[in-house]
From TrEMBL:
GO terms for biological process: methylation; sterol biosynthetic process. Heme binds at residue 431. Its EC number is 1.14.14.154. Catalyzes the 14-alpha demethylation of obtusifoliol to 4 alpha-methyl-5 alpha-ergosta-8,14,24(28)-trien-3 beta-ol. The keyword Metal-binding applies. This is Obtusifoliol 14-alpha demethylase. It is a single-pass membrane protein. It comes from Triticum aestivum. Gene3D superfamilies: Cytochrome P450 (1.10.630.10). The lineage of its organism: Eukaryota, Viridiplantae, Streptophyta, Embryophyta, Tracheophyta. Pathway: Steroid biosynthesis; zymosterol biosynthesis; zymosterol from lanosterol: step 1/6. Belongs to the cytochrome P450 family. It catalyses: a 14alpha-methyl steroid + 3 reduced [NADPH--hemoprotein reductase] + 3 O2 = a Delta(14) steroid + formate + 3 oxidized [NADPH--hemoprotein reductase] + 4 H2O + 4 H(+).
Length: 488
């Protein structure tokens, strides 16, 4: 009995302490749940936005939301949530976050039927990372230096076909010359010599496949998507035939195609013909698509702004004098005025109107006013690049073409914060084709400024908002007349 009593006593004591500990833990958990947390961004229902979108347009609607809610707000798409981050202060995690925290998700799906299922966003992350490194190696500054002479040769040969004077569609001419450049530097002489006209036409169909509808529904068999798929298959056939011809003849060339053929994965595996074809298509897009749009806008803006046109021409005179009429890589790097004219055209009409990622984990943002928000995992996160490029607290008179804003003493893109100018991405996601794009555009406009008197004779173009790249709508007609003032 004494033993039983003792055990009962100890059991009661144990239960007493368990009860106390359980109560403490319960209260601690309750307190944890009641700790203050950061608020979620303000939310607006998409149905409430539709009248504004149809009446005012998407850009004005975003501006209205920014004015009302500030730099962070969420649009509820009747379930899925899209959170917009406006301005450099709230953009850091978007560009610097790890792939496991924030990634492209399914938003790059539109590129899969364009480039193929064997490359980039059609493959796993590890393989994609190695493929991106192959492309980055091709686009290194040391490799770009070797492209200057071939690019100049293509530009000079193309514009040698212009007469003494005449009228042309600048949009068509620049698209053509950039295709010649791409074929010479990226595709190889076989394509350049024998199939360029067909390849140009096929790439045009691929570019048409990059539109808002295809972005949302990349696999729906619309007429545009069917032409895109047909063009992809034919380009793959052309490139595969070229690759196999080189391999069988043991012939090696100095171009991007050859460098991809010689590349190997970390496990020693060679790149397949299909992978090479897809990466070449991606390179052409990186080098031609944004370059084409930006080179046209650069011309339209310069020819509409005499002050900056004269400044760019004076710079050409100075560069020619310094380098004794020999324009090379180092001379191009010193064309700061022309560089600013190009950069301001990009700011005014960015090739990428918005950038999107999928948040996999919750993250915090803090606005320039000091407000903090939690962005939940699962949200689609969008940087409205075109809108950010016109923020009045970053750029003075943001709707005015003013290349000097990037010059010494102002440098508004740097003063505004690290992520003030993100047309080419930022952080972990900088576009690898940026340097090539600037190089090509500089070579083209350096040649045109030195050799032609140019005038814009059609109205200043509007942006084609149906396209994702804000390309000029319709023809951009200019008159030209040869002169020897700046002959190189």
């Amino acid at each position: 009995m004494d033993m039983l009593a003792t055990r009962t006593t100890w059991l009661a004591i144990a239960l007493f302490f368990i009860t106390i500990v359980s109560t403490k833990i319960s209260r601690w958990k309750s307190n944890i749940h009641h700790l203050p947390t950061r608020p979620l961004p303000p939310v607006v229902n998409v149905l409430a936005l539709l009248p504004s979108v149809f009446k005012k347009g998407f850009g004005v609607t975003i501006n209205d939301l920014y004015t009302r809610y500030g730099s962070v707000f969420t649009i509820n798409l009747l379930g899925p949530k899209i959170t917009l981050l406006v301005g450099p202060d709230v953009s850091a995690h978007f560009f610097q976050g790890l792939e496991s925290e924030i990634s492209f998700g399914n938003f790059a799906e539109v590129t899969v039927p364009i480039f193929g299922q064997e490359v980039l966003y059609g493959v796993d992350v590890a393989t994609r990372s190695e493929q991106v490194n192959f492309l980055l190696d091709i686009l290194k500054p040391s490799k770009l230096r070797s492209l200057v002479d071939p690019i100049f040769q293509e530009v000079e040969a193309y514009f040698a076909n212009w007469g003494h004077d005449g009228i042309v569609d600048l949009k068509h001419e620049l698209e053509q010359v950039l295709m010649f450049i791409s074929s010479r530097c990226l595709l190889g002489y076989e394509v350049r010599q024998m199939m360029l006209k067909e390849v140009y036409s096929l790439f045009h169909e691929l570019e048409n496949g990059l539109n808002f509808f295809s972005y949302l529904f990349p696999y729906i068999p619309t007429p545009t998507n069917r032409r895109r798929d047909k063009a992809h298959n034919r380009l793959k056939e052309i490139f595969t035939t070229t690759i196999r011809s080189r391999r069988s003849s043991s012939r090696a060339e100095e171009d991007a195609l050859q460098r991809l053929m010689d590349s190997k994965y970390k496990d020693g595996r060679s790149i397949t013909d299909g992978e090479i074809s897809g990466m070449v298509m991606a390179l052409i897009f990186a080098g031609k698509h944004p370059s084409s749009i930006t080179s046209i806008w650069t011309g339209a803006f310069m020819l509409s702004n005499t002050k900056f046109l004269i400044a760019a021409m004076e710079e050409q005179k100075h560069i020619l004098s310094k380098y004794k009429n020999q324009i090379g890589y180092d001379a191009l790097l010193e064309m700061d005025t022309l560089n600013r004219c190009i950069k301001e055209a990009i700011r005014m009409h960015t090739p990428a109107q918005m950038l999107a990622r999928k948040a996999h984990k919750k993250f915090k943002v803090q606005t320039k006013e000091g407000k903090e928000y939690d962005i939940p995992g699962g949200h689609t996160v969008v940087i409205p690049t075109a809108f950010n490029n016109k923020l009045a607290h970053v750029y003075t008179d943001p709707h005015v073409y003013d290349p000097d804003r990037f010059g010494p003493g102002r440098e508004e893109d740097k003063v505004g914060g690290e992520y003030s100018f993100t047309t080419f991405g930022g952080g972990r996601h900088v576009c690898p084709g940026m340097a090539l794009a600037y190089l090509q555009i500089k070579v083209i406009w350096s040649h045109l400024l030195r050799n032609f008197e140019l005038k814009l004779i059609s109205p200043f173009p509007n942006a084609d908002l149906r396209k994702m790249g804000q390309e000029p709508k319709g023809k951009v007609m200019i008159s030209y007349k040869r002169h020897q003032l700046l002959h190189c």
